[in-house]
Design brief:
The complex is a heterodimer of chains A (about 280) and B (about 120). Chain A is an alpha+beta fold and about 280 residues long. Chain A has helices at about 1-10, 15-135, 140-155, 195-200, 255-285, and strands at about 160-165, 170-180, 190, 205, 215-220, 220, 225-230, 235-240. Chain A is about 65% helix and about 15% strand. In chain A, the strands form two sheets. A six-stranded antiparallel β-sheet of chain A has the order 3-2-1-8-7-4, with helices on both faces. A two-stranded antiparallel sheet of chain A has the order 5-6. In chain A, a hairpin with a 2-residue loop joins strand 7 (about 225-230) and strand 8. In chain A, helix 2 packs antiparallel against helix 3 (about 140-155), helix 2 (about 15-135) runs parallel beside helix 5 and helix 3 (about 140-155) packs antiparallel against helix 5 (about 255-285). Chain B is α/β, with parallel strands linked by helices and about 120 residues long. A five-stranded parallel β-sheet of chain B has the order 2-1-3-4-5, sandwiched between helices. The longest helix of chain B has 12 residues, at about 15-25. Classes of the chains: A alpha+beta (about 280), B alpha/beta (about 120). The interface between A and B is medium-sized, with 26 and 21 residues.
Chain lengths: ~280, ~120
């Protein structure tokens, strides 16, 4: 319409007006193009702005996360320090407890050793007490002889023994009791002859030496010990111990103590029993 | 709690006295029998918790007593410790074949005896 108007006017417009109109048209086209360009640019810029906003938001999140992680790291580090201190403390306590345990184990070992010693001592004392009780429990000669036999068999540990009495002359030992031996072979022993007679003559205990598997032979039997019996220091008889029981081994301090007891108490018990027997005979006659 | 009862069977007064001295400190009630027959009778009558039994005895020896104890229902499961002078293998084996629980040899070691007795009686 404008063109028609312009065409109708063209017929009447001047060439300068036509040139101006063309310039305006071109300017319009140029401005439209520019507008489109600016619009495209605007859209592009808007999308960039939106992108930047997203990046800003992400950066904020990351900053928050970094803050959080740094705080967490600090907290974990402090916790680790505390744990280290606690571990150190526990290790110290463990070392102390191990020391205490060593001490207790040592103490327990000492206690056990002492207990064993005490029990051994108790057994030795029990042996002596029992021997004493048995020897003085009767005034019958046979009873005393039996007591001596039992004591030597059960408390010393043998199954071969001989019990002798010194005769009035003091020159001969006569057999009054035995166990496990041929009595005929040991009926009489001269004082001073052989290890039994020798022990009686000297009034001293004979013990076979530890390194000897068997002692000196007396009538074919190895003698392990000979105990002279004494009343008021005077020999009144002897106990001969031959082969020991297989499980016995060598004599120990407990056996020596028992022999010492037998040397006096067996002697006095036999002496009292003999006296008692004689008194009874005298009373009967 | 009632005290545990131990029956001591031995023909030797010395051994019986020794066993009584060692075991009396353990707080046990002790019953005594002086030969095999009395041992069987007292085991049935008294129902002990443990029996210490000598091997060589008159009337009945320890192995015969042991056989009888294992035959009787009432004494079958009672622990029996043989007290023997003999440690030779065959004698120990015979004792175990006949049903003994353990053994000690003479001369009696007090610590060994009390340890073995306690091991069978202390719960």
């Amino acid at each position: 319409m404008m063109d028609k108007a312009m065409n109708s006017q063209h017929l009447t417009t001047s060439p300068e007006e036509t040139l101006s109109y063309n310039q305006l048209l071109q300017e319009n086209k140029r401005l439209l193009l520019l507008t489109e360009t600016l619009e495209t640019e605007r859209v592009r810029l808007e999308s960039q702005i939106a992108r930047i906003a997203e990046i800003e938001a992400d950066r904020e999140s990351l900053r928050w996360l970094v803050d959080f992680l740094q705080k967490e790291k600090k907290r974990t580090f402090e916790q680790l320090q505390k744990e280290k201190v606690a571990v150190h403390q526990l290790e110290r306590e463990r070392a102390e407890l191990q020391n205490d345990l060593k001490g207790i184990a040592e103490h327990s070992r000492e206690f056990t050793d002492r207990y064993v010693l005490v029990e051994q001592q108790n057994t030795r004392l029990a042996n002596l007490y029992v021997a004493c009780c048995r020897l003085h429990s009767t005034l019958e000669l046979n009873g005393v002889i039996e007591a001596v036999r039992e004591i030597v068999i059960n408390l010393v540990g043998t199954e071969e023994l001989a019990l002798f009495e010194l005769d009035q002359s003091g020159s001969t030992l006569s057999l009054i009791g035995s166990f496990g031996i041929d009595e005929q072979q040991f009926r009489e022993i001269r004082v001073g002859e052989g290890p039994i007679g020798g022990a009686a003559a000297m009034g001293r205990l004979f013990i076979r030496r530890g390194e000897e598997p068997d002692g000196p032979l007396v009538n074919g039997l190895p003698l392990s010990a000979c105990v002279p019996l004494k009343v008021d220091g005077r020999v009144t008889g002897a106990i001969a111990v031959f082969r020991l029981l297989q499980q016995k081994g060598n004599f120990g301090p407990a056996d020596i103590e028992l022999f010492d007891l037998l040397a006096t108490h067996a002697a006095s018990a036999l002496y009292c029993a003999s006296l008692h027997g004689r008194r009874r005979l005298e009373a009967a006659s | 709690m009632s005290r545990k009862k131990i029956l001591l069977v031995d023909d030797s007064p010395t051994v019986l006295l020794m066993e009584q001295m060692i075991l009396s400190r353990g707080g046990y009630d002790l019953i005594v029998a002086r030969d095999g027959e009395e041992g069987v009778a007292k085991a049935i009558e008294e129902k002990p918790d443990l029996i210490l039994l000598d091997v060589v005895m008159p009337k009945r020896n320890g192995l015969q007593v042991l056989e009888e104890l294992r035959r009787q229902e009432i004494t079958r499961s009672v622990p029996v410790i043989m007290v023997t002078t003999r440690s030779e293998i065959e004698n120990v084996e015979r004792a175990f074949t006949n049903g003994c629980t353990d053994y000690v040899t003479k001369p009696i070691n007090g610590l060994e005896l009390i340890t073995k007795v306690n091991s069978y009686l202390v719960e």
